[in-house]
Design a protein that fits this description.
216 residues, 10 helices, 5 strands, globular
Length: 216
């Protein structure tokens, strides 16, 4: 890795039929990486927090995973397949708005909170501008499972909109193709909570409310 890169995007190479998700990607601190965690390194001119947080959110969206699992037919996410997967174009994040905020602004806030939960990701937080008046990085966000589930559902609703999938029956169908996630959440919460929260966020975003209090 270049010396000035203190964090990168990596994704899991393994994609077994028994796994809950096909693509699992994350922003991770600088370290030594094995061949089962391919890294996504942009050109130096484009390698910045803005590009990376959007891409990471995109790769973890349910709607993206729905497409990916129809393309991956082995236990390995090969590069030639990964490079063909449909990524939201950068300009869409500024063109699509929910109330007063652009899609990019909403995604940025959620990804920052979901990612910066430990001090080893402080360089990422600083690059994202999460600093005090003196330029010092603010403390990490508290890990809260309920809060994280809500933020992930919010991101999923954003990406359903960015991919043009807004019909509620279509969204329900896409979620139905993730039976392991549904089973685990039904056991934990008594319902397919990710799906229900996402549908609630679809309503809130349609109304232009990006800070809605979702009570499910």
């Amino acid at each position: 890795l270049p010396e000035n890169e203190n964090w990168v995007i990596g994704f899991r190479d393994i994609a077994r039929a028994t796994d809950a998700r096909t693509i699992i990607a994350s922003l991770i601190p600088r370290a030594g990486f094995g061949n089962k965690l391919p890294l996504i390194l942009a050109d130096q001119a484009d390698q910045n927090a803005r590009t990376s947080f959007r891409l990471t959110a995109n790769l973890n969206a349910f709607v993206f995973d729905f497409v990916a699992r129809s393309k991956v037919h082995s236990t390995s996410v090969n590069w030639y397949i990964f490079e063909q997967l449909p990524i939201v174009p950068p300009d869409a994040y500024e063109k699509v708005k929910f109330g007063k905020k652009t899609a990019g602004e909403v995604v940025r806030e959620a990804v920052l909170e979901l990612t910066y939960t430990a001090h080893d990701m402080a360089p990422f937080a600083k690059d994202m501008g999460h600093v005090d008046k003196k330029g010092n990085v603010l403390p990490p966000f508290k890990w809260d499972e309920e809060r994280r589930l809500m933020l992930r559902a919010k991101l999923d609703a954003i990406y359903f909109n960015l991919y043009g999938v807004t019909d509620r029956d279509d969204i329900r169908y896409i979620y139905s193709t993730f039976p392991i996630v549904e089973r685990e959440e039904t056991e934990a919460y008594g319902s397919f909570r990710s799906r229900d929260l996402c549908l609630a966020w679809m309503n809130a975003l349609k109304a232009g409310d990006t800070e809605a209090e979702i009570g499910i």
